[in-house]
Amino acid sequence: MFSKQLIAVIICVLPALAAPSPLVLVKRNANPIFGRYVVTFKEGVDRIAGVSSLTNRISPHSTITHEWDIINGVAGNFTDDDLESLRSLRNVASIEEDGYFHTQNITTQ
């Protein structure tokens, strides 16, 4: 009797555990640099392991161009197909389109 209940619970829980994680949304930039993205890893993910998971997922047409110590992430040039693939990685916290940022507005009077 106990084993039938345990099997029933396992059957109910397994599909929830096997469900794919939601895709990471890509944050867009007002002044984008076409094809360049900044990928940050989730807290607790080792950067070396994160970079390894990215390089295993991307094609030869994409490249990682920068790695930082100050943030747990990388920047690179990624094709649209590779970007879609990176969105599903469990260790990715965010993906943001790289772009030009202005620190000051010039006002003339």
Produce the secondary structure layout.
Elements: H1 2-18, E1 26-27, E2 32-41, H2 47-57, E3 63-67, E4 73-77, H3 80-86, E5 92-99
Parallel strand pairs: 1-5
Antiparallel strand pairs: 2-4, 2-5, 3-4
Largest sheet: 5 strands, mixed
* Major beta sheet, strand line-up: 1-5-2-4-3
Uncertain residue segments: none
CATH architecture: 2-Layer Sandwich
From N to C, what is the helix and strand string?
HEEHEEHE
Q: Find the structural class using helix and strand composition.
A: alpha+beta
What does this structure look like?
This protein starts with a helix and ends in a 10-residue tail after the last strand. The protein has a single domain, classed as Peptidase S8 propeptide/proteinase inhibitor I9 (Alpha-Beta Plaits, 2-Layer Sandwich), CATH 3.30.70.80. The protein is elongated and about 80 Å long. Strand 3 and strand 4 form a beta hairpin. It has 109 residues and is an alpha+beta fold. The chain contains three helices and five strands. The mean pLDDT is 83. Strands 1-5-2-4-3 form a five-stranded mixed β-sheet, with helices on one face.
